[in-house]
Amino acid sequence: MKARMNRLGFHKRSGTSAHELVYCLMIWVWLKVDSIGMFARESLQTFSRARADALYAALNQEDWNWRRLHMGLAQQAVRGAKTSGQPGAFVLDDSIRVRHGKRMPGVSSHFDRTSGRHVMGQQVLTLGIASAEGFVPIDSELFISATRAQGLHLPFRDGRSVAAKRYRVAQSQTKPQMAGNMIRRSQRAGIEADYLLADAWFGTKPMIRLADEQLLTPILRMKKNAMKYRLTERQAGQTIRRVMDVKALYQSCIRCRWQKIPGQPYQARALDVELNLSKQSLRRLYCLYPPDRHTVLYAGDCQVSTPSQRHRGYAQTAHGERHVHRLCHAIAAGLSGCDCGRPGRNECAARGDGHASHGDD
Length: 361
Description:
Helix content: 25-40%
Largest sheet: 10 strands, mixed
Mean pLDDT: 77
Structural class: alpha+beta
Radius of gyration: 23 Å
Number of domains: 2
Number of helices: 12
């Protein structure tokens, strides 16, 4: 670990070494202590002789490349856990950490699907890989919306630094753009998967196109909106094509026509529909009907051909999302060294992926 950090430029001229400070920051995040100040008072001396000011200074290092460090560790973890022949899946999810500080940079207004209302906070988009062996977080990015965004109180010391570049990305890119960049970075690093799993926020045409471009089979929870699907049926020897939204599809083709998945407490119904993606069309749409009687609509590819395969994809999505939510809440808790209100801690908000996954490409 120390040699890896030295290669990536994690250096300090004096005082506590960089690798020891990073170790303390990781302990702070995973112990879920509210602030660095509280961690320093209660636990820090157990692990190091460093003081709270040293941890704040480490958070404000603009050129420490946390993303490369995180990617290297993720590569090592994936290689150690990968079993040949077992499919893997990229899992995308976002999480919001509510923030109430009026001077905290990187905070903006986001719609919280859990509470059903808009909140002020920091939103982190995370990409991980899920398989039979477990879940490994790969990359993440802070997303700053254009609504009520709280800017920096002090400019970056160097606009070309890693933190400055990532802050501009957080402000300028959309979440689908961030997701595409994270997937491409992971594939360039040699982390491969067969599927792309995501919840309803990502059930859009651009995300399906992205999956096709990266040679991934998409299993996405689709939005229950006005998006139109084209259904082709044979009736009385004639071919009939109908264009319907999700609600119309459910009423005419799915309701009361569920089929049991062998060995699973789920029912499913598969439909072959087409979705206009400009250059190509989606080949399959299917629904899962869990025991709680809430319909879960997923769009997939014809390669995911059996209900049991589709159920495994659904289960991996839920499994991955649980890990992502835990990770994102820990990350958001550690996003800003200015959690105690100390002024001038701008760089912390530019990281977007916590203290173990920070940096530029």
